[in-house]
Amino acid sequence: MPRKFFVGGNFKMNGSSESLKNLITGWFNQTTIDPNVEILIAPPAIYLLHLQEFINHKQPPVIHVAAQNCYDVPSGAFTGEISGAQLHTEGISWVILGHSERRAIFGETDDQIAKKTKACVEVEALNVVLCCGETLEEREANKTLEVVQKQLEAVLKEVKDWSKIVIAYEPVWAIGTGKVATAEQAQEVHAQIRAWLKSSVSLEAAETTRIIYGGSVSAKNCKELSREADIDGFLVGGASLKPEFVDIINCKV
Known about the structure:
The protein is of the alpha/beta class and about 250 residues long. The chain has 11 helices and 8 strands. An 8-stranded parallel β-sheet has the order 7-6-5-4-3-2-1-8. Strand 2, helix 2 and strand 3 form a beta-alpha-beta unit. Helix 1 runs parallel beside helix 2 (about 50-55), helix 5 packs across helix 7 and helix 7 runs parallel beside helix 8 (about 185-200). The chain is globular. The two termini are about 20 Å apart. The relative contact order is 0.15.
């Protein structure tokens, strides 16, 4: 079965409830959205439920709403955190974990991200976009595959069933910099990740797990990237806050 193309928009700490509603309304009004694409948006946590309710009133509700992070236990004295169980209770079905900004700014380790991933996939109907990727120094030292495998292997120690995981390969040096991996560079890493899934998880996981690319994805480069065999979509940052996000969603049309 073909892997369904997947496009996520990570709004990070941007926008207001009103501005984001206007943005989404503009997407619906701008053009027809490709029904063959699974779409996700990840707003700041304070807007999760507002935007989910707003989208659910659109017909059909073709956009999933995702959290940008969550903790690895269901409840407790963890000030400022949200759990996967709480997200599920409120009907949030996706969460982004392991983003490079969480790793670099907030010091999240591979093991912490692995434990969060385990906690989330064990929650009914909660799915994970699992981010991985190397820094510029690591790429220049030819350590890309070593770094990415280390990040994924930490998760493998905790998670055996990868059916609820989408892997987002995001080279850190390309996030928000305007630089982007060439289609060939991205495909090479995606193919290596798929080979790792085959050898370390299962043949089924290799064939069905979607591996998406993130790192300065735009309307200008998305079509070329989308033609590669192992690129199953995108996790988009800055461009998801612009009208061109629709062009990225529709890049296969």
